[in-house]
Specification:
4-carboxymuconolactone decarboxylase, AhpD-like, 4CMD/NDH-1_regulator, 127 residues, 2 domains, CMD-like, 7 helices
């Protein structure tokens, strides 16, 4: 693999955690290998690896963009990642306020629901 891929895999593990990445890697097939390589190199090895924004800022942007575009499936994964990126509950709530104003209350409301559920699950697993 390429240097960008290796960097991307390292960043992906740092942000999402080894358990998540190990599950994704175990589920990878020949069919989705090109896609997995693409996201590892582009999303993780280029965008998330850049030092122009902090990981905290990237978490906030990512959750807001997922909510604004209605891509709710990945919101719980990125909420869980905040434990490693430094984005707080208050940061995420603030980001979703922007979603409500600039993209619509229903999307922000649904994202808040998902975030609340995920935070509750995370707190339960700490007990």
């Amino acid at each position: 693999m390429s240097e960008t891929f290796d960097r991307g895999m390292a960043v992906r593990r740092e942000v999402l955690g080894n358990a998540h990445v190990d599950r994704a890697e175990a589920a990878k097939t020949e069919f989705d290998l090109p896609f997995q390589t693409l996201i590892t190199e582009s999303a993780w090895g280029t965008v998330w690896a850049s030092d122009r924004l902090t990981r905290r800022e990237r978490s906030m942007l990512t959750v807001a963009l997922l909510a604004a575009t209605g891509n709710f499936e990945e919101i719980p994964m990125h909420i869980r990642a905040t434990t490693r990126t430094g984005a707080t509950k208050a940061d995420i709530a603030e980001a979703l306020q922007h979603v409500a104003i600039y993209s619509g209350v229903p999307r922000a409301n649904h994202a808040l629901k998902l975030a609340k559920q995920t935070y509750a699950e995370m707190e339960e697993s700490e007990e």
